[in-house]
Structure formats: structure tokens, C-alpha cells
Amino acid sequence: MNSAKTIEIKVERTIPAPPGEVFDGWLNPKIPGNPWNMAEKLLLNPKVDGFFYWNAKGISHYGRFTEVARPGRIQHTWVSPNTLGEESTVTVIFKKQGEDTLMTLVHSGLPDTDGGRGHEKGWNYFLDLFPLQFTDASRERK
Amino acid sequence: MLASHYTIWCNVDMDQLTDVLTAISHPSRRAIIGKLAESGPTRFTDVAKPFDVALNAVTKHLKLLERAGLIERERQGREVLISLRPEPLRLVAGWVHEYERFWNERLDQFEQHFKDKRKKERK
Q1: Are B87 and B69 in contact (CB under 8 A)?
Q2: Is A26 in Cβ contact with B114 (below 8 Å)?
Q3: What is the complex's ipTM, to 2 decimals?
Q4: Contact: A9, B92; criterion CB under 8 Å
Q5: Between helices B2-11 and B98-121, what is the axis angle to 10°?
Q6: Distance CA B110, CA B18 (A)
Q7: Chain A contacts of B33, Cβ < 8 Å?
Q8: What's the Cα-to-Cα distance from A20 to each of A10, A105, B40, rounded to whole Å?
Q9: With left for phi above 0 and alpha for psi between -120 and 50, is residue A74 left, alpha or beta?
Q10: Which tens digit of pLDDT belongs to each residue from B30-86?
């Protein structure tokens, strides 16, 4: 990664299964919802320094697993056209929560291109100020 | 779905995006946006009132907001009314959140899979 500023996306869900099962499900291409499941062509080697490649609708994604620690944590790099060829990082943390698992996915190191550099605070502000518009915009795009 | 993400990203007007992000990066300009969102069309003097800065500083903030397409001015007699145009914020929101939407959709499906599974197990 070069010295350009980056942004981070964080998404959380409570999954109704124990961490080990959720961890295994995240790495199983047959389970809907993980990124591998949507691939039309997939190469997946989920161990430290193992690589993945997946392609959907002609768009390729590449990465290298940097942590595979069952049942708590998976981390891998993520390179796609949207990362502008830079390595971003996806970290998935599975934390026991009663009978369930709190799953936290953090996608960090996403390139903050010229348009966004230095303005992260502004994004947070307007997300607070205009939540309905974002919801509407999001619905329109879906 | 994925293809549409890329299309949206590629079509974003980066110059306008830069202008909008610049506009919302300053607390005074965010306060102006907030006031206009709350009050609707507002006279220049009322926009400037809460700020403890020179009027020409407020004018500069308004120019940046105008360049980003976030406000418009309309003359009514002797007064100039300033209104918020929130549409450019959607452009930024879409650009910022493509990956957030991608992961949310993924995790929604993943969660649903386990919900269905638990439901079957408990029947």
C-alpha cells in the first residue's frame, strides 16, 4: 500500500450459530453470503499464505490469507478493480455471544482517492445529518 | 449486483466528488448545511448570524458550497435566499458505501442461511 489515505468499512451481524460453525461457514463456498459463494470461477486456499482468486461477471478479485485462526479470526488481503490495484485488508472476527456469534467484518485500506482524501470526518457528519437520503439512495440503487 | 457497483464507481464525477467532499470537510460549512436543511431557504444574514467570523469568511464558505452544487441562491427583491440542494451528497454516499453495501448484502445472506438452519434444527 502506498502512503495515500485509506478508508475503512465495518459491518457487524449476530449469526445464530456458535463461532466454530460460523467460521467454517465463512470459508465454505457452498454457504450463501460469503464472498466465495458468488464466484463463477474460484480458487481458494484458506491457510496462512494461501491465495484466493474469484471471478464474477468478468471481475476478478485476488488475495492472500494472512491469519486463519479458528474459531476467532480470519484475515486476508483483497485486491480488485475497486481497490485500484492496491492491497486492502479484510478482517473477520467471530466472537461468542451466548448461543450466537457476533461477527465483525472490517474492510480496511480501501483507497481514498483524490476525491475523498482527508474528508472522512465529513462523511460521518453527513451520514448523521441525512440518514433518510442515504436510505432512499441505497434503495434506488438496489 | 456486483457489476452495478463497478458501473457506479466508474461513472462518479470525481471532480464534483472532490468539490462536495471539500465542502463538507469544514465544520462551519457543515453547520451551514445543517441550518439550511433545518430551516429551508434562508437569507444570507441569517445564515451568517450564528458564526463569529467576518461576513466575507461566510461568503467564502458559501462559494465553496455553491461550487459543490450543494446550495443555490435566489434573489427575491432586495434579499438573496440560500437553499440547500442535497442531491450531490447522494453521489458521495454512493461512492463511499459501495463496499459497505456489498458486505452488508453478503452478511445478510450469510445470517439468513444460519437462521434457516437453526429454525430447521429446532423443529
Answers
A1: yes
A2: no
A3: 0.71
A4: no
A5: 160
A6: 35
A7: 126, 129
A8: 21, 16, 53
A9: beta
A10: 889 988 988 889 998 899 888 877 888 899 999 999 999 999 999 888 888 999 988
Cα–Cα–Cα angle for A50, A52, A73, nearest 5°? Answer: 65
Task: State phi, psi for B43 to the nearest 5 degrees.
Answer: -70, 150
pLDDT tens-digit map of A80-131: 887 888 899 999 999 999 999 999 999 898 876 533 332 333 333 333 333 3
Tell me if chain A has a CB within 8 Å of the CB of B8: yes
pTM of this structure: 0.57
Which of B99, B115, B116, B121 should one mutate to test binding to chain A, selecting the residue with the greatest count of A CBs within 10 A? Answer: B99
**One-character DSSP codes across B35-87:** HHHHH-SEEHHHHHTT--S-HHHHHHHHHHHHHTTSEEEEEETTEEEEEE--H
